[in-house]
Design a protein that fits this description.
This protein is an all-alpha fold and 291 residues long. It contains 16 helices and no strands. Helices cover 74% and strands 0% of the residues.
Length: 291
Amino acid sequence: MAKTTTPSYEQAQALFTNGDFEGSRELAIALLQASPQDPNLLRLAGKAGAELGRDDALGQLEQAAAADAENPDAWRDLADALLSEGRLDEAAKAIRQAVELRPDDVASLVDLAHVVHASGRTPEAIQHLEQALELDFNNLAALRGLVGMYREAGRREDAVTAGRKVISYRPGDIETAIDVAELTLELNRLEEAVEAFRWLRDVDDEPDHEVYAVHGMIEAEMRRERWRSALDLAVDATRVDRFGRTTDILAYVVTQVFGSADRPAPSRRDVDDALAASRDEHRQLHSALGI
């Protein structure tokens, strides 16, 4: 006679782990008929329901957190569901509860930082990320967050330091390499800026992206009034620029090296605007690529 297996939480959890959210949810809900206040079953039904976009998922996760208030994971699951609905203030409260229960949870501190930052509280967000780094000094998520938040707060030197750490751990992090190059340019540390854009030119192997790094080097050399070097770079840029974005830049630099020509050259302001637009376009392309 075949042995009958009694449905269990472990089976529902295994279904969730294997990506069968529908099966996991149905089994968890069936088991809740006998144990309607079981926090583990409520959490599992809520998490599976959240994956499936079910309306009752958030209520189940709220019940789970209330029933198991000392469990930081229950609060994290609730926070994730609240975030998915854009309820930032409530999500922040749930993550704070998780952090209070597990103060050394670096992932929760990083998440809390991003939630409060999204609510416009950048100084508080920076504090949470710095606390995360005290617990895990090379945590990439915290370091990457600090690059942008330090920059937003006007702490450019700190942003460069954080960015260089990220690149030392992950050399292929293009967005952080863009940050470091732009920040050294903003700080007028022009030799460092040239090196940073040169590094960016080497590591960004996306088609047609070389021109952006060369434009950055041109801008740094223009600021130093190293016109011959700027000219060489502008010529290089035209070779890799399929869309003519370097034409006016080259025309301007040529006039600085050889003097005015018959054809009017663009103004310095026009060239500066073009170079700034090039930087913005480069960042937007990588943000769109998610790399």
